[in-house]
Write a structure and sequence with these properties.
The complex is a heterodimer.
Chain A: E1 2-10, E2 16-25, E3 30-35, H1 41-46, E4 56-61, E5 64-65, H2 71-75, E6 78-81, H3 94-104, H4 109-122, H5 138-150, E7 156-160, H6 168-183, E8 187-191, H7 195-201, E9 204-209, E10 212-218, H8 219-223, H9 226-231, H10 238-245, H11 258-272
Parallel strand pairs in A: 3-8, 3-9, 6-7, 7-8
Antiparallel strand pairs in A: 1-2, 1-4, 4-5, 9-10
Helix pairs in contact in A: 3-4, 3-5
Chain B: E1 2-13, E2 21-29, E3 33-37, H1 44-51, H2 54-57, E4 61-69, E5 72-73, H3 79-82, E6 86-89, H4 102-113, H5 117-130, H6 146-158, E7 164-168, H7 176-193, E8 196-200, H8 204-207, E9 213-218, E10 221-226, H9 228-231, H10 234-239, H11 245-255, H12 267-279
Parallel strand pairs in B: 3-8, 3-9, 6-7, 7-8
Antiparallel strand pairs in B: 1-2, 1-4, 4-5, 9-10
Helix pairs in contact in B: 4-5, 4-6, 5-6, 6-7
Classes of the chains: A alpha/beta, B alpha/beta.
Amino acid sequence: MISVENVSFNYPGGPEVLHKLNLRINDGEFVAIMGENGAGKTTLVKMFNGLLRPAQGRVAVDNIDTREKSVAQLSRNVGLIFQNPDHQLFAETVGEELAFSLRNFGFKEEVIQRRVTNLLTALDLDRYATSSPFVLSGGERKRVALAAILVWDPKHIIMDEPTIGQDYLQKDRLRNFIMQLGSQGKTVIIVTHDVEFVAECKPRVVLLSRGRVIGDGSAVEILTNSQLLDQASLVMPQIAMLMNELKDLAIPPAIIDAYSAREFLKNKLRQLIAVRPPKER
Amino acid sequence: MSAIVVRDLSFTYAGAEKPSMENVNISIDKGEFVVFTGPSGCGKTTLCRCLNGLIPNFYSGNLQGEIKIDDIDIKGKSTAELATHVGFVFQNPENQLFSLSVERDVAFGLENLGIPREEALQRIRWAMEATGILDLRYKAPYELSGGQQQRAAIAGVLAMRPSILVLDEPTSFLDPKSAQEIVGVIAKLNRELNLTTLLVEHRLDVVSRYANRVIVMDKGKIALDGPPSEVYDDQARLIGIGLPRVTMLFHLLRRDGFPVARNPITVAQASDELRRLIRQ
């Protein structure tokens, strides 16, 4: 469990980035932290593995105050994947990048090799095991950065903007991967602007604006609330907008992704044009 | 007149086994708004790097074929010479801005070109007005929001009066509202200055309405090329590009046997089409 109690924070000499923020994330939850550029999202998640400590208030991970542990100790349970993979990657080869932390944590060499191989395969990176991370594309480097954290199997996994630079198929793969982590009981926290990705994954959404939590609820609740979205510089998912346009046709507002919209419209259209069954194209 | 003609272009990065781009042929007219998209690693960034001379001047490798910009063969031209023809905006504005004030940043390219002071001042002002950042001119880039930084980066290349603007995923780091604003600024420049615009993007939901043409690359080749509503068909989905969600919905409904006629690319078009279907 991650608990944030009354946390305020400012960078030295800077304005307040987080203001008396309270948040509780239970084990195994899938949470998206959303909000405008500069809302404090990245600052908040950097508190979870001790990279930043609150100026006021308290952050506890599994009931341990982050101020009592080093980043290295906290990292064993909290894996944070940075937005920019180049802030994280440094090794000569992709395989070495993954093995590095395992060596530091003192795993046996055979365990290291097995884990590295498994994870490279899972993230479609196995062909790059001996390549330098820096010859890979931006999207691929992001997956290496993700693999380098997942390899030590932390209990809580935080991804800062995981979908940036990823194409549609990779986002789909990422979504399945996150669901898998969820089924293993992992806590998954993503920081993201990608409303369409969130509309398809439907995590709990915590909406930040100017260092405060301004909304906390299901993806459907938050992503259909135009007032809240506006405040946090987000836009409604396209399908939610479409459903809103059609609301005079007795369409429920709680639809935010294409697949749910299809199910609903299929039934609706079949009722309406029942007299003339649709022709196959 | 064609603004850009690319003929039989292939490129293999030094040390790479396979070409990143193979036999690419494109002709783009003055004033077009073209969206380039495709799965990551498809070669779209490589193609952009060829257009402004970063390939082969900065990235070495084996380059074959021909590129003409404003009817000039760019072979052997330096990146600096090309900068007055092709303005390049990167994904992350932080990689492009470095001065202590926005105005200094916008001025940088002009100073390098040796533009006389009076003309430079005029151009700087014009570029900052066109991108809506005149009131931010004395601010330091780090004081700006991501969207403002990206506007400053665009102003910097705009001041060099290029005839072509190439933008490589300029909205990636921006929140959705800032992303819409930036794409709006780009569309306005395209319209008002007849500035040929090549926009590399995955976020087709935000950019499609402005594009007269979408080019999809796949595995180093041009796979599809045409107006958005034609390109966003089954093949585009199979290549794995992220269609606007309303377009995707219509693909699904068509698979279910509903007689939906076209591929809407905006919410308004989708709404109209559904109403038409229901009234029928």
